[in-house]
Amino acid sequence: MVEVVCSRWSQNYHLVDYLSQWRQEQKLSITRKPSYLNKAKKGLIQMEEETIKNDQEKGTIAGAVALIIGTSIGSGIPALPQKASPAGIFPSSISLIVCWGFLLIEALILIEINVSLRRGKRKGEEENEFEVISIRTMAQETLGDWGGTLATVFYVFLGYTSMIAYCSKSGEILYHLLNIPESVSGFLFTTVFTLLISIGGTRATDQFNQWLTASMIGLLVAIEVIAVVVGGWSGLDGSGNWGKVPATIPVIIFSLVYHDLAPVLCAYLGGDLPRLRASVLLGSLIPLLSLLVWDAISLGLSAQADQVIDPVELLMRVRWSGVSVMVEAFSLMAVGTSLIGTLLGFSEFFKEQLKSLSWNSSPTKTSKESTEFFGLRNWWGRNKISFTAMAMVVTPSLFISTTVPDAFSAATDIAGGYCMTMLYGVLPPAMAWAVHNQESKDSDRNELSRARPVVFAVGIFACGIVVEQVLLDFSAFHL
User: Where are the bilayer-spanning segments (predicted)?
Assistant: First the structure.
């Protein structure tokens, strides 16, 4: 959300691909040792190589923090003021801080479990290959096959609801900017990003995404400064409606979640728990502060109006017309960064499923006369899985986003209230509980055991969010 999400979702695939290539190059460089050293000091060299491997596999805290920030700050920000306005500044700010703390604990639980599983796999393998243990694998290893199936179901549901939200919001923004119908502009926007990933490849997508993220953060800072200058703080007061707080929780979770990065971060930092904890804490603080400032200035503008209106629309009515363009551009960039991460991660999931169906075609021997024909055929054989997986992601999302009114609001509520809460709220405590019950002498599992009351508390809180969302949707359905 801000984002999934961050985003929400990451940017994980191209990072994994890059790190895997980096790991292979390091392995080759390590194994090219002089033969006389291998004969004279075999034991010493093995210890040295192990140390070099461990040091080179680990990334930096700064890199991990940047990944979390880029994932968190996303398309949830434009939707937050409208949802938080009925509750007021103080209740919504408290809700933001509580949800941030809840998500921080959940991320730390995921990291503990992932590192524990990574170390367990290392003990059973002679070679320490770079590998990302996905949340689905974590659920399957700790909860059994039913846990893996449940994680898969929620992942697919979350992927589609997030895609629907991004397609719908992009169409809405482009309609305001270019006066193109929402269905057409949303279709074109999604198609451009789909072609960028499918044809441009991982490197082009990564470079474009870095530029987009940097521009988005710069615009956000500029917008917040302008809003303060024009009086965004002056309308604030301490009043609020605590009864409206539950309705803000789904979009807050959608805006702050970054937990799909947890497996990648564990691999990136080599399972170093102290640095992982520091990275998660620092990386999640910056999006929280950005959201608190954004919420405050937006609701401050809303309090000055005589009618109930979206605070973002009020910000766009500032005397200087350039502010409206900045807000729309920021929103579009936020949607774009979130869309890239979701397209990459979700399409890779479907590619994995299609490969298991033996879609790979064997190379065919051809004559020189039919080189062009079979060259095209071979090109399609190499890429049909990627294109099919991308079509499976994009087609249903575009269909629903163009046919369902207000699809963005509904999709963010479903994604934040159900999918993300179940996948990154309910499942991690359940996995930690299962790890605790398994008989093991591993020290990391003992750490989870000592934190069992906290695990139980966040599990109950996550279940409460889901129940509250069910009650809200049920009451709205019968109105």
Answer: 61-80, 92-113, 146-166, 186-204, 211-235, 247-268, 280-303, 323-346, 385-402, 414-434, 454-472
In angstroms, rounded to a whole number, what is the distance separating the alpha carbons of residues 478 and 109?
Answer: 38
The three-state secondary structure class of 320 is: coil
Picking from 155, 167, 197, 162, the residue whose alpha carbon sits closest to that of residue 398 is 167
Contacts of 309 (CB under 8 A, 6+ apart): 302
CATH number for the 12-31+43-477 domain, one of 3.30.70.100, 1.20.1740.10, 3.20.20.100, 3.40.50.850? 1.20.1740.10
Residue 449's pLDDT is 56
Whole-angstrom distance, CA of residue 384 vs CA of residue 68: 32
Query: Hey, what are 313's tokens?
Result: 């629309």
In tens, the pLDDT along 258-290 reads: 887 888 788 888 888 999 999 999 989 988 988
- Identify the sign of the CA torsion 194, 209, 412, 186: negative
Domain boundary assignment for the chain: 12-31+43-477
Question: pTM (2 decimals)?
Answer: 0.72
In sequence order, the 6+-apart residues with CB closer than 8 A to the CB of 415 are: 1, 4, 158, 161, 162, 165, 250, 254
- Asked if residue 192 has pLDDT above 80, the reply is yes
Nearest to 417 by CA among 79, 170, 107, 186: 79
pLDDT band (50, 70, 90) for residue 243 = confident
Judge contact between 93 and 236, C-beta under 8 A: no
Tokens of 249: 């929780």
248 pLDDT above the threshold of 90 = no
Query: From CA 294, how far away is CA 225, in angstroms rounded?
Result: 10
Q: How far is CA 334 from CA 4, 160, 372, 437, 442, in A?
A: 11, 18, 42, 42, 42
For residue 368, give both structure tokens: 């020189």
Mean pLDDT of 147-171: 87
